[in-house]
Amino acid sequence: DQQVKQNSPSLSVQEGRISILNCDYTNSMFDYFLWYKKYPAEGPTFLISISSIKDKNEDGRFTVFLNKSAKHLSLHIVPSQPGDSAVYFCAASAGNTGKLIFGQGTTLQVKP
Amino acid sequence: EPEVTQTPSHQVTQMGQEVILRCVPISNHLYFYWYRQILGQKVEFLVSFYNNEISEKSEIFDDQFSVERPDGSNFTLKIRSTKLEDSAMYFCASSELVGAQETQYFGPGTRLLVL
Known about the structure:
Chain A is an all-beta fold. In chain A, 0% of the residues lie in helices and 56% in strands.
């Protein structure tokens, strides 16, 4: 099931700089997109979401951008902090189903 | 802050044995889910549950799996006869409502190892 793809398995950035994590999807029926952060041996923690009627949503250091025509979304973290080091998952859902489809995850390392 | 809890954190079992994984969803949430993540793979949807019924299930969720809300707080996943390939992290999640705009909150997971 490749409906949601995160093509970069890992990303390394310097503390204080911007982290940009990318996600592509193929199903045009997706109308809600979420980013989760996951530490080893823990469950996914909700970070930020965006509805398909918007193209941007911001919450503190986290901003999600949605480009529906390109079926692409991205998560920007500014400024990046060492505590942001984790695996980031993009997920999507369609209509009234609660089923979330996850990407493979991107491991972010923020270096001090 | 309310959170989803899961027990046990780790479970080791012999192939063919039954296991029950337990979850306590966030108290005012009405929709419950199970997902799993096999090591090195994506998080995969198993089943959603609302009003004491399965709302949706994936092809993974075959007759060996069942879910139940035995009381007002617990939500369980039972695997009747475990197979080696059932070894995975199992995550419970809950949401207040379902559909667009509804965020699912995940528990810490149960690591199941089938020997």
